[in-house]
Design a protein that fits this description.
By secondary structure, the protein is mainly β. It has helices at 2-20, 25-28, 65-70, 76-79, 148-151, 435-438, and strands spanning 42-43, 51-52, 61-64, 86-90, 98-102, 110-114, 137-144, 158-164, 173-180, 185-195, 199-210, 226-238, 246-260, 276-291, 297-313, 316-335, 338-353, 369-383, 388-399, 403-415, 420-431, 448-451, 458-473, 476-491, 503-506, 511-526, 530-546, 552-555, 563-573, 578-587, 608-619, 623-630, 689-698. The longest helix is centred in the first third of the chain and has 19 residues, at 2-20. The model is unreliable at 1-33 (pLDDT under 50).
């Protein structure tokens, strides 16, 4: 608290003189925004066509490269901790894989795309946001709420679209090198070159290495998974006749990740002597976009990704291969006050693994899954006046197992004045569940997986209200943003950890599920010297199951916070070339997956917060040095708990005893009647650490 009080005093002492003084040469430049404050940003995620953010009928949040520099991190996954209503969730205390929660919904409900292409498949959802070179990211667009009307399955909870740089506008060279006191080393670089008169290209590389195991909580296991990761991204762009567009990009990703007992090494991989979780991941991704050489605005977009995962969770193997080919043709037509968009989409998915997902119990043979999913969509954006716009859309997909799937949506945008925009969006979403590619808990082998019945597609209905108002000042601006949402699921499939502590049970929801809440945020910019962002989200996520005699049972899913907040405060000293950034988040209590009535761990997490501070010094126009402290409060989830990983002393359950019904017995050696389980996780185990780095940018 003393540090926070001192920091706020420091902010006030510099902000007040800044407000009082006249506009200087710094303000004479274009004011920039870390977040979505500048409403003139071009966005594409909401309508699949370039449109000014102010004019988009769909609320789209935009995060620039300046946002990524507030708290330097090695991946986009970790950067999401600074977005209001978005939380990167770790799913395992050992291998540290994770996913992204938007408005309290689980990771599989979030679709991740790169340049609009759905190349982050379900098999790689826990890795899809790792390894994208930060130096090649232009911006990140986030849509909260169902986007299935345009993007199909997996976009039920929201969309994260990573827009990479245009080779024609990218810097000649960018380099970012960082290391921490935990010896996490990052090299992120990008380079641009011209290939002839009509083509330009960019090449990016992301290298991350952490090879020094730590066990600060003294449970005998690594606090953070060791990783060696390389990602190479190459994008080409051509200047064609009549300003037509054409580009192609490719990315290769490899990662060797492991966590486990401190004395584990690769000779123990797959054995029951020393516990370790070892994951080798290979990915290849291709993306292309081409505007046809005709008068009409017709584009063809395509992507392909190959994912191979070779994993061992203790003595349980998981070997998975997935191929996904995607092609989409869109036609944009302007007719008076109408903006028509029509599209044809085709997705082909080949998936094979060594689990029950592709095993035929009758023949005993392996049966890889092959799914052809065609779709067609149409939308009409009608501009009735300068103030009112309505968007109506309809998508039809055909699934070979589940048949016809129709997802309509409608949106209304009302400009309440020069600086205010009200948006109302409503629509439906759908998702076809594949447990073994989406649920890390189903892979580890620490619990038996029980699929109680044939799983049907999830369906949802959503309404979202958003109001944004920009308040200009003579020396800056403020942006206020508020949203409220309500989502109803007629079928939702979530893991049941409660019925049997030794099992994970999956079945269709016989009832309904509800997700509702409000989100508020404010951004303040004064002369590009002082910039701040505050966000708060309050949400209520629950399932209502129908039980006997017409009664209902209400429950809340595990690992879902009831409220959260984010903030950032930045101040620049332009004459001296210094800047300071203070960022943080705070999360309210969430229910945690206990293993039984005797489990001594907390049933709910406490209020917890991760806070960071950074100081940056510019050296000339091309270079800057930065450094600071991450996790200032040195918070870790083991505080207040007797242990985090259950039965860490017996990871293969060799000394666990069971009764005739398969229930774990309470013994002197096992007084809490537990089995080994690493799923009790809600935050990172990394404590306070120092970081230092430098950047070079050459235009």
């Amino acid at each position: 608290m003393k540090f926070l009080s001192s920091f706020l005093v420091l902010i006030v002492s510099f902000v007040m003189p800044c407000i009082a003084q006249n506009t200087d040469s710094i303000y004479a430049r274009k004011q920039d925004s870390l977040f979505s404050g500048i409403m003139q940003d071009i966005v594409v995620s909401g309508t699949l066509r370039p449109v000014r953010k102010l004019e988009s009928p769909v609320a789209v949040e935009v995060y620039t490269t300046q946002f990524l520099r507030l708290n330097p991190v090695p991946s986009v996954f970790e950067a999401m901790q600074g977005v209001n209503g978005v939380r990167p969730q770790l799913n395992c205390n050992i291998c540290n894989t994770g996913d992204i929660h938007i408005n309290g919904l689980e990771g599989p409900y979030t679709m991740v795309t790169i340049d609009g292409m759905p190349i982050v498949s379900s098999l790689s959802s826990v890795y899809g946001l790792y390894g994208i070179p930060n130096q090649l990211i232009e911006r990140i667009e986030i849509v909260k709420g169902p986007a299935s009307g345009l993007y199909g399955s997996e976009a039920v909870g929201g969309l994260i679209n990573i827009i990479t740089k245009d080779p024609q506008k990218a810097p000649l060279l960018t380099v970012d090198i960082m290391s921490t006191s935990w010896l996490e080393n990052l090299v992120d670089a990008g380079v641009k070159w011209r290939a002839g008169k009509k083509a330009q290209a960019i090449l990016g590389m992301n290298l991350f290495s952490y090879q020094h195991p730590k066990d600060n909580n003294d449970d005998g296991f690594t606090d953070m998974a060791l990783q060696q990761r390389i990602s190479i991204f190459n994008k080409w762009s051509w200047n064609l006749k009549d300003n037509r567009q054409a580009n192609i990009a490719a990315r290769y990703f490899y990662e060797d990740r492991w966590g486990g007992e401190m004395n584990w090494n690769k000779s123990y991989r797959g054995s029951d002597q020393v516990y370790g979780e070892s994951i080798y991941t290979n990915r290849l991704e291709l993306i292309g976009n081409y505007q046809l050489p005709i008068h009409e605005k017709i584009f063809f977009s395509g992507s392909y990704n190959y994912h191979h995962q070779d994993s061992w969770y203790g003595k349980t193997p998981y070997l998975g291969i997935q191929h996904i080919g995607f092609g989409q043709m869109t036609w944009h037509k302007s007719i008076k006050k109408h903006e028509w968009l029509t599209g044809l989409a085709l997705r082909y998915n080949v998936y094979d693994d060594n689990s029950a997902a592709t095993h035929d119990p009758l023949s005993g043979e392996n049966m890889p899954s092959r799914t052809l999913l065609p779709g067609i969509f149409v939308q009409d954006e009608i501009r009735f006046s300068d103030r009112h716009t309505i968007l109506a859309g309809l998508r039809y997909d055909y699934h070979p197992v589940h048949g016809d799937i129709i997802t309509p949506r409608v949106a209304w945008k009302w400009k309440t004045g020069k600086e205010g925009v009200f948006r109302l969006n409503a629509g439906t979403g759908f998702r076809v569940v594949n447990l073994f590619t989406e649920e890390h808990a189903a892979l580890t082998g620490s619990r038996k997986v029980v699929i109680a019945e044939e799983l049907k597609p999830e369906k949802s209905y959503n309404v979202n209200l958003n109001y944004t108002y920009r308040i200009p000042f003579s020396n800056g601006f403020m942006v206020l943003d508020g949203s409220a949402w309500y989502t109803l699921f007629t079928n939702q499939i979530l893991p049941d950890y409660d019925t049997n502590p030794d099992e994970i049970i999956y079945q269709n929801l016989h009832g309904r599920a509800i997700s509702k809440g409000i989100s508020l945020s404010a951004e303040w910019n004064i002369q590009n010297r002082f910039r701040s962002q505050l966000g708060f989200t309050l949400q209520d996520i629950r399932q209502i199951k129908e039980i006997a005699d017409g009664k209902e049972e209400v429950s809340k899913p595990v690992l879902t916070e009831t409220w959260s907040g984010v903030w950032s405060f930045s101040y620049r000293f332009p004459d001296q070339g210094w800047s300071m950034d203070y960022t943080g988040n705070v999360y309210g209590p969430m229910r945690l997956p206990l293993l039984g009535p005797l489990d001594p761990r907390r049933p709910y997490s406490p209020v917890w917060s991760i806070q960071n501070i950074q100081v940056t010094k510019k050296i000339g126009r091309k270079m800057e040095i930065y450094g600071g402290v991450k996790n200032l409060l040195n918070w870790t989830p083991n505080k207040g708990n007797p242990f985090i990983i259950a039965r860490a002393n017996d990871p293969f359950d060799k000394n666990v005893e069971y009764d005739n019904n398969g229930q774990i017995l309470q013994t002197r050696e096992n007084p809490y009647a537990l089995s080994f389980d690493p799923t009790y996780v809600y935050g990172p185990n990394q404590g306070r650490r120092i970081f230092l780095g430098f950047r070079i940018t050459v235009f």
